[in-house]
Amino acid sequence: MSNKRYSKPLTMIATLLLLALTAGSLSSCKGGGKSRNPLGASGRPLSLMVVLPDQYDSEALRDSVRRAFSQALPILPQPEPALDVMFTTHSRFTSMFRSQRNILYISIDPERYTGPSISVSRNDYALGQILLHAKAESEESVYTILRLRNDSMIRTVFDEEVERRLVVLNETFSSAFARAVEEQVGGVTVNAPVELEFIQTGDHFVWGSNMAQENRMDFVVYSFPFRDKETFTRDYLIHKRDSVLGRQIKGQFPGSRMMTETMLMPVFSAKEYKGAYRAELRGLWAMTNDMMGGPFVMHAIVKGDKSEVVVAEAFVYNPSGKKRNLLLYDESALYTLRLEGADYWSHSIDKTSK
User: Fold this and answer.
1) Whole-angstrom Cα distance, residue 202 to residue 140?
2) Are 327 and 158 in contact (CB under 8 A)?
3) Is residue 23 within a helix (H) or strand (E), and if so which, with residue range?
4) Distance CA 49, CA 90 (A)
5) How many Å apart are CA 46 and CA 282, to the nearest integer?
6) What values do phi and psi take at 268, rounded to 5?
7) Which residues contact 176 (CB under 8 A, 6 or more apart)?
8) Residue 81 DSSP code
9) CA separation (Å) from 313 to 157, 298, 332?
């Protein structure tokens, strides 16, 4: 195995710009919208400003909103809410609140609405903002929305946060990591976080890390032969993960190696993304004979010639702190995994240009 260190120190200006982009102050500029704040949406990732009708503002309604959006995210070592919820009312919904990145605006009017509904708009008050409109004819219908549509609203906000990160990763990423993937794995590329200054390569394997004691991010890409449709199952992907990472990533103590924590089995899902199939595995990792561990997310796709499966995985380590936003930051790069030569946004290859 070769051990290389690619690093390109960031200037103070570049670092501050990266932090600003991550916070959302210069978030997605796709789409014009009715922007009134040219600096862009503000607030922390996975936060939600909920705007309640003044006449219906009550502890009962606030508690229901909290329960709907503060449910613990699956596959994290310690419970963390899906969204951090804040409140204001229609009359207090001033410019300070209107610049928030994620807003749920609840309207109740029996004369205007005949039933509950949810709609989405973007950039109403700031660039890079998403606004969920919950409309109902009664307070009871709002409770129905919160009970039946909370998962889809959480997913909408999460997907929007990923899109914001993708805007950043399109411009600021580790070109050294991408180059290593193209050389060692071949046929694919990826825009991994620029903080991954330590890069180690092996046969069909690339590992990047910021090597931090706290808020540590790691990212790996590797490939293995495509077998058949049974390749894309939870058990087989866990088997390949433990085989590859157990061999490539060792701990500081004898016999210590990367493994998948199966006391709480990873969650497997399959979906179509950008017109192509990909499998997702979301679970916990641990180091044998060590105390290290944390959450991971894996994406697996098939190469264009169907010969190999390519896996990209993000995993984080932050023993004394929260991990939700750190994982989101790292995980978002998985969505940039694409065939080499494919367009960044569509993941399609322009065959006419060949």
Assistant:
1) 58
2) no
3) helix 12-23
4) 12
5) 18
6) -105, 140
7) 6, 7, 8, 199
8) B
9) 22, 4, 10
Q: In what order do the strands lie in the sheet with 84-89?
A: 84-89, 47-52, 102-108, 130-136, 117-122
Q: What are phi and psi of 33, to 5 degrees?
A: 65, -170
Give me the count of residues in the chain: 354
Nearest to 17 by CA among 5, 28, 26: 26
Distance CA 280, CA 159 (A): 15
Rounded CA separation 67/322 (Å): 20
Binned average pLDDT, 10 residues per bin, the chain of 354 residues: 38 36 37 55 96 97 96 88 97 94 97 95 95 97 96 97 97 97 96 96 96 94 90 94 94 88 93 94 93 95 90 96 96 97 93 58
- Can you give the pTM of this predicted structure? 0.86
Contact residues for 296 (Cβ-Cβ < 8 A; gap 6+): 281, 282, 283, 284, 285, 313, 314, 315, 316
